[in-house]
């Protein structure tokens, strides 16, 4: 299969990454994380008081597969800011503790950021996307 | 089931000059502190990738989780 093979799911993930300034791919939801590492990443972002989009990768294994193909990062969670992979839970926590994460995500001055969290979730309903 | 010692050996073999401290009593969740001169000049992201690449295919599988801290020797 060539790289030209249409891959709507991968496109949807790439779109979600580029359209959301801060987006966290995680297991579960910010309200109900399904993994301690994802919970840690959510807690870190919430501590910075920034709004962020999130995608639950659990409903379809292909989400994780495609995400890792895009990011070249094997594990979950994965935090993207401004279209760039910041890292997984270890890096996110380290950056938080050093104060760098606040700069990267533009906290706390960016409190007026538009609320887009729902957008990515709608985009990544693989059932809708792929039929 | 991999052991912490096995992970340590594999990291130190794959990254010559590196030292790794690995813990993971349950055999699936590991914590590693890796120090390597090869990390110099690389971003944290790249440093983590260098270590995780060693276990490509196993992360999320037989190695459920690998918590990483990377350091450059001073």
Q: Per CATH, what is the topology of chain B?
A: GMP Synthetase, Chain A, domain 3
Number of helices of chain B: 2
**CATH architecture verdict of chain B:** 2-Layer Sandwich
- In which order are the strands of the major sheet of chain B placed? 1-2-3
The average pLDDT score of chain B comes to: 93
Task: Give the ordered list of helices and strands of chain B.
Answer: HEEHE
Structure write-up:
The complex is a heterodimer of chains A (131) and B (74). Chain A is of the alpha+beta class and 131 residues long. Chain A has one domain: Glutaredoxin (3-Layer(aba) Sandwich). Chain A is 48% helix and 13% strand. Chain A is built from seven helices and four strands. In chain A, a hairpin with a 2-residue loop joins β3 and β4. In chain A, α1 (8-19) packs across α3 (61-71) and α2 packs parallel to α4. Chain B has 74 residues and is α+β, with helices and mostly antiparallel strands. Chain B has a single domain (4-71), classed as GMP Synthetase, Chain A, domain 3 (2-Layer Sandwich), CATH 3.30.300. Chain B contains two helices and three strands, in the order αββαβ. The longest helix of chain B has 11 residues, at 4-14. The N and C termini of chain B lie far apart (34 Å). The relative contact order of chain B is 0.24. The mean pLDDT of chain B is 93. The chains are: A alpha+beta (131), B alpha+beta (74). The A-B interface holds A 37, 72-76, 85-91, 94-95 and B 44-45, 48-49, 52, 56, 59-60, 65-69. Chain A: InterPro entries: Glutaredoxin, GRX_PICOT-like, Monothiol_GRX-rel, Thioredoxin-like_sf.
